Amino acid sequence: MTSLNAMVAAVPYGGPWELPDISHLFEMPTLPWLDFQLFGLELGINRTILIIFLTVLVSMAFFGMALGSPQVVPGKLQATAEAAVSFVRDRVAIEIIGPEGSRFVPLLFTMFVFVFLNNLAKITPFLMLPPTSRIAIPGFLAVISWLVFVGVGMKEQGPISYFKDMAFPPGVPKPVYVILAPIELVSNIILRPFTLAVRLFANMVAGHILVVITLITIHAFLVLGPGLPVGLFALVASPLVFGFELLIISLQAYIFTMLTAVYISSSLHAAH
Amino acid sequence: MEPIGQGLVFGLAAIGPGIGLGILVGKAIEAMARQPEAAGMVRTTMFIGIAIVEALALLGFVLVFVIGG
Predict the structure, then answer these.
(1) B38 CB near a chain A CB, below 8 Å?
(2) Are A188 and A9 in contact (CB under 8 A)?
């Protein structure tokens, strides 16, 4: 981000410059004094990790204060936190999984709050980088979701018959099973976590690029150089971009949680 | 050749989701016009469908940056 800014700021002074790689928007330098080595990997704390720390602290503080000592007649803070929990419990868990959904509410609520707050850093001033746009984070959330729905399926229906029911759904003529079984197995076991991760990742990457390019356009055209029409257009478009990104942020957090609930429900109730 | 490839990746990836989204939202509008009482539920389901279909177009957009520069 700093080298992109430096290049944009250097534009009026002439001289050669080339379009920076898109990874400049996502790969941040690490804090130099905290670099350490682990199993041959160079690890460090960079902006992405610091933003995750911040969102986790904010959510722990908010829900700790709001639901720490619950009163029978809730005050405003407790009512807000209870509205959020009851949204995940009633509209996502119980509506999709059924009455047994209550025991998955902690997992679904944690996923929802984590994904929502980290997505929200995309449009928060001074943060401006969603940690969920680095593939490791939605990747690992999808791995957790995958472990939960395969584990619940194996526990409810027995390990062998879970995969057998998935690969050979009833009501299909016998020769079609040769094609259908691999497709069903791959689509349910491999593609489900993959698309879950990539959907969140791609939405956040595209949104981050959009927000950053809009703001850089405003800076480069209005502050640094001429070009009033383009700069003014970007200035007028920036609240629309922020509003659209807010919609996408909420929608993607809800979709991630809801699809995890749908997969858990399809493991619990042998649909066939 | 690489810019041609990058352009083709997103261009071709956007055809299917474009048609899919058009059909989806059109059917949702039709459903809301036929039964206005169900408009809330139809609208919620439409947004869920949009998010799932849009994932494919965005996957193409991200692949443009992954395969080159």
Answers:
(1) no
(2) no
